[in-house]
Every structure is written in structure tokens, then in C-alpha cells.
Amino acid sequence: MSGSPAVVLRLVASAYTVAEKAGDIVRMVLHRGELGIVEKNGANDLQTLADRLAQQSICASLSRRFPKITIIGEEDLPAEEVPEDLIENGQEDEILKKICPAEYSGVKEEELVVWVDPLDGTKEYTEGLLENVTVLIGIAYAGSPIAGVINQPFYNYQLGPGAKLGRTMWGILGVGAFGFQLREVADNKRVVTTTRSHSNKLVTDCVNAMEPDEVVRVGGAGNKIIQLVEGMASAYVFASPGTKKWDTCAPEVILHCVGGKLTDVHNKAYRYDANVKHMNSAGVVATLRNHDDYISRVPQSVLRALTSD
Ligand code: AMP
Ligand code: MG
Ligand code: MG
């Protein structure tokens, strides 16, 4: 091979360091103590200074290096000059050394869509449930999620000083997923993870229909996928509109890379083209294994209530 690495590799290598910088920002804002909370849509849909600064940093850094890529961020922010100290120019060299799968080697910048959740788990962030927080950068090509980066800024924070704080996971379909140790739930137990702050009757009915051995309620879409790949849960079940494309794009890739699957409650994949609607209207069922089994237990009442895109 000659010349510079494929765009997909260069984008993921940049997104890796950009997500780390966003993680620094998320920690810095908490450390300073002035969260600047704004209610976007009531008390269960919040934005903080960390969401705003992290998104500015991610979007400005990536669009400066990849000007033709479509970047869609969660937060609605005024178009203004982003301060230079928010710009991240680094790249993760290990990613640049990987071999780009043949189907992505000719992909052009303008064919890629980047979905950015600068801070997933904002509610939990404001409540001090810090391990639930992630930074999500998902990359889609031809409507499908193909690469993603998840930074978990407060990983290890309970261990106190001395432990390395924060980590970054990344994956590209056909290359693999890195930055964590794949584990499965012991003894084939059915451990269902779901929302802790956006529940309703459909959500609980669907969780109960899974006949779980255990239910875990935690914040964040990114965090719940981490639970799946690290053996803390066997299925993420959320039978409600609520998550958006920026919540599921990067996590879906990490899950796919290790043989898992993420669909709506009808077993239909979401699409991530630039013009799709942002809401995942027909909920989320994500599993590491046995996807069809979980799907087969979704109640008719849920299927009737939630329509696929
Ligand atoms: P949760 O599992 O409740 O932490 O939600 C995962 C992601 O989806 C987070 O980014 C939430 O903000 C978002 N989300 C889920 N349900 C809702 C909702 N009803 N309103 C606003 N955001 C939601
Ligand atoms: Mg989110
Ligand atoms: Mg968010």
C-alpha cells in the first residue's frame, strides 16, 4: 500500500483523540462545579455547559480536518467561532496502522455522516452517576453505521487517585472493536438493562415480557452497550421513542464488531443517512447473543404502539 491511509481510518483516528478531548472537557466542567444546566424539553431532557463545549470541540475539530463530511450533533448551538483551545488536532496512530476493509477503502469524505452525542447520560452527569456518562461519535456510510468511538470520561473514578481515569473504545466493521475486554453474562442468565429516568408503561411491560433473571436500570445508551459487551447485561430493551440516532450509531458499531445486534422492537435496523429523522421511534432492542429470542418476546401491545420508520 502506498499513500495516506483511507479516509475512514483517518476519520476514526481523529475521532479517537477528539473524543478524548471531549472527555477532558466533561471532567473539567464538573471539576469547576458550574454545570450551566438548561432544560431543553422538561426536566428529563437537559443540556449542560459540558454538552455544549464538548459538541463545539468535536464538531469544529472534525469539520476542520474533514470539511466535506456531514456532522450531526445532538445540541442546537448558535453558529459561532469556536475558541482555538477547544480544537483537537491529534490522531491515534494505532488506528492509522490498521488495514482498511476493501469495501471502505474508496469511500470519500462526502459519503460519510458523523453522528455526535457530546455527552450521553446528561441527567446522570448532573446527579453524580458519573460512570454512566459517555461521549459518542458514530460514523455511517450508505445509511449503515460502520465505525464508532466511545469515550467514558469517568471510567475508574471510584478507584480514586492513582487509577487511570477514563477510557476510549473504538471499532470499525471488518477491523474489530478495541479498548475493552469482551465478556458475556455468566450462566446464560437473562439480565436486561434499561432506562432509569425515561420509563413508562410500555417500557416496563416489555422488560417484564423478557422474563429476565435480573433487571438493571442505568443511564445512557452508550453505557448500556458497554454493559452488554462487558458481561453485565444480556439485552438492552427500551420500548419507547426517546433515543436518537446519535445515541445508537457509535454503540451499534461496537456491538456489531463483537457479533451483537441493535434493532427497533420489530427487529428492523435503523438507518443513519444524513436526512433521516433523528428520533428512534420504535425503541431499541440490543443484544450480544440470541437477538431473535428477545425479539420474539416483545408483546403485541408494544408492537402495535411503536411503528418502524
Ligand atoms: P436513558 O436510557 O434514559 O439514559 O436514555 C438513553 C438516551 O436516550 C439518552 O441520551 C437520553 O437522553 C435519551 N432519551 C431516552 N428517552 C428519552 C426521552 N423520553 N426524552 C429525551 N431523551 C430521551
Ligand atoms: Mg444521549
Ligand atoms: Mg447527549
Small-molecule binders: adenosine monophosphate, magnesium ion
**Helical content band:** 25-40%
Strand content: 15-25%
The biggest sheet, with number of strands, parallel, antiparallel or mixed sense and barrel status, is:
6 strands, mixed
Report Rg.
Answer: 18 Å
**Structure classification:** alpha+beta
Which overall shape is indicated by the principal axes computed on the Cα atoms?
globular
The poorly predicted ranges are none
How many extended strands? 13
Strand order, main sheet: write it out: 3-4-5-6-7-8
Arithmetic mean pLDDT: 96
> How many helical elements?
10
- Sequence of secondary-structure elements: HEEHEHHEHEEEEEHEHEHEEHH
C-alpha termini separation: 41 Å
Describe the 3D structure.
The chain is globular. The strands form three sheets. A six-stranded mixed sheet has the order 3-4-5-6-7-8. It is of the alpha+beta class and about 300 residues long. The model has no long low-confidence stretch (mean pLDDT about 95). Helices cover about 30% and strands about 20% of the residues. It has ten helices and 13 strands. Adenosine monophosphate binds near residues 44, 220, 221 and 243.
Secondary structure layout plus pairing:
Layout lengths: L6 H26 L5 E2 L6 E2 L1 H17 L4 E4 L19 H4 L5 H4 L6 E9 L1 H6 L6 E8 L2 E9 L14 E6 L3 E3 L12 E4 L6 H9 L4 E4 L3 H9 L5 E4 L6 H13 L3 E3 L20 E4 L3 H6 L3 H6 L4
Parallel strand pairs: 3-4, 9-10, 9-11
Antiparallel strand pairs: 1-2, 4-5, 5-6, 6-7, 7-8, 11-13, 12-13
Helix pairs in contact: 1-2, 7-8
The structure holds adenosine monophosphate and magnesium ion (2 copies).
